[in-house]
Amino acid sequence: MLRDRLYSITAALLVAASVLGALPVLEMGINDDWSYTYMAREFATSGRLTYTGWAAAMLGPQIWWAALFIKLFGFSFTVVRLSTLPLAAGCAVLLYRLARFAGLNPLFALFATLSVTLSPLFVPLAASFMNDIPGFFLWLACIYAGARAVQASRPLGVCGWMAAAAAAGVAGGAVRQAVWIAPLLLLPVVAWLRRTLRPVVPVAAVLWCASALAMAECIHWYQAQPYALPSQYEGLSPSFELAGDALDLSLQTVINTALLILPVLLIFFCAWRKALRAPFLLAAGLLLAGAVLAASLWWFENDLFMGNVITATGFLGPGVEALGLKPAVLPAPARIWLAAAFVCCSAIAFAVLLGDLRRPTKPASGSFGSPSLFAWLYLPPAILYFLAILYRYLHDGMLFDRYLIPLLPALVIPLLWYCQQRIRPAPPTLAWAALGLFACYGIAATHDYLAAGRARVRAASDLIATGVPRSHITAGLEYDGWTELEHSGHVNDEGIRTPPGAYHPQRGRRYAISPPYWFWDETPSVEPLYFVVYSRQPGLRDTALPPVRYTAWLPPFHRRVFLQMAPAESR
To answer: What tens digit of pLDDT does each residue of 173-214 get?
Structure first.
């Protein structure tokens, strides 16, 4: 147990160090979290949840948590952002405990934990106030409480842990609605597994009904809030196009998940001699992996990544958070190497897994859990979660790589359990090195996005110092969004239904550049006359102020943001 405590604490400290190492000081939002930060500030001031017309997440407990930090340390974007850090570290502790519950030995459990929490997907989100990490923390807390309920020896302990699972799941869904999948599936599974204890089944039924009622009440309350964006899903008619879209999502998920867990797949690569004993399976694996990669590249326009957190240009793609081109931090040669690693490791894993199916499985030594119990508790919610994001993608085309985080433990832990049982008793040095490389990339990419954000804020501040009103400056998604919120309290999103008439179409509005920046229709309070951009834009001219320089940790190391203005005739 001492070793378990040491490893779980080590994992939590490494997560905290990765976030702090990225230097997360920025007085501006990251991605969507500017709107969440505004809600946290308003709640800390007024005690009311004030929605802004941006994003359709409830966010309740996350906002309360951040408001506590604001009360203790005062308001700043950095304080609100760092409120995510304890939850990110908590994810590491819970993941380690779940990995041990699944039968992994301490070293493999540590590797499983870090392969998720130090991934290039997790680190940038842990350094933000996005709701992905708080939602994931409560998702894990719900499933961990379910695992403890299965382990408990007395009826009172089983019922207490089921109540904790219900509470964590309901709270998680109040942050991010998809988390509600966990308690709704977990409670029946725990009740079935512990059905021989007399009070467990009726208590589980009561908790399930109470959870469902709480969820329904949350939805009813949320939909009545001004400037909330309720999720409105229409029916989907079966068609060949719909089937193609579903296949598109499946291929994207396979590729992106394989890339994220590449350090795990490298353990199979180290067992290449076993794969050579099954040449037919190895050849089939190569063909399958190559076909999936080729189809995926063709389907999503020759890019390996879904986009949002991990792109060829770092956190967010070009033209998303600000105007202009960003340098490629994952250029074509790096993406080719990643694609080759995916094909090789996937083929070897395919050959090893299928070639070993008939061998008897040895009991996991030194563990206190069971892989089958982990499968019962984690896989049903993970599968339904995947179907939920599939439905959303088919409905509105929205799919981001950050949605994959809850799916990673469902793949990482079973694969590592197999490696522990069939291949070797500890992860090889190559796998640890790859994990470290992934972590370093995630930290560097996060730092570079924050550094670019600081440069944009400084450039906008230089303009304001010359007398330019903030409402005449456009410096990207996070900066313009905050300008709009400070001016009107909400963005101009067409999805707003309450109050009626809140959305005002921006038809006929003229801009100095064409095509206009995608976010300007959402920010009618911003009249873009001065521009903070990553690269000079046609039709604009430079101001008298020099570009703002900043240093990145990924090449190119020396970068600039430019200050431009609209020509006089377009004003």
So the answer is: 999 999 999 999 999 999 999 999 989 999 999 999 999 999
Query: In 10 A of CB 382, how many CB atoms?
Result: 22
Q: Where are the beta strands (DSSP E) in 142-228?
A: none
User: What is the pLDDT, as a whole number, of residue 302?
Assistant: 64
pLDDT digits (tens, 9 = 90+) for 306-344: 888 999 999 998 889 999 999 999 988 888 888 899 899
> Do the beta carbons of residue 149 and residue 166 sit within 8 Å?
no
> What is the tens place of the pLDDT at every residue in 522-563?
999 999 999 999 999 998 999 999 999 999 999 999 999 999
- The domain limits of the chain are 2-230+363-436, 240-355, 466-570
Low-confidence ranges of the chain (pLDDT < 70): 231-245, 299-302, 357-369, 397, 569-571
Amino acid 368: pLDDT:
43
The pair of structure tokens assigned to 48 is 């009311």
How many whole angstroms separate alpha carbon 495 and alpha carbon 498? Answer: 9
- In angstroms, the CA 188 to CA 196 distance is 14
Write the secondary structure of 413-456 as one string of H (helix), E (strand) and C (coil).
Answer: HHHHHHHHHHHCCCCCHHHHHHHHHHHHHHHHHHHHHHHHHHHH
Residue recorded with tokens 């399958």: 288
The residues near 6 (Cβ < 8 Å, ≥ 6 apart) are none
Distance CA 22, CA 18 (A): 7
Residues 121-154: b if buried by 16+ CB within 10 A, e if exposed: bbbbbbbbbbbbbbbbbbbbbbbbbbbbbbbbee
pLDDT at 369 (0 to 100): 61
Tokens representing residue 409 in the block? 């433990």
Rounded to whole angstroms, how far apart are CA atoms 159 and 278? 49
Tally of CA atoms within 13 A in the half-sphere of 40 that contains its CB: 33
Q: Which residues are CB-neighbours of 206 under 8 A, at least 6 positions away?
A: none
Cβ neighbors of 207 (< 8 A, separation 6 or more) are 162, 163, 166, 187
Residue found under tokens 């599974």: 189
To which H or E segment does residue 258 belong?
Answer: helix 240-260
* Residues 27 and 79 sit within 8 Å (Cβ to Cβ): no
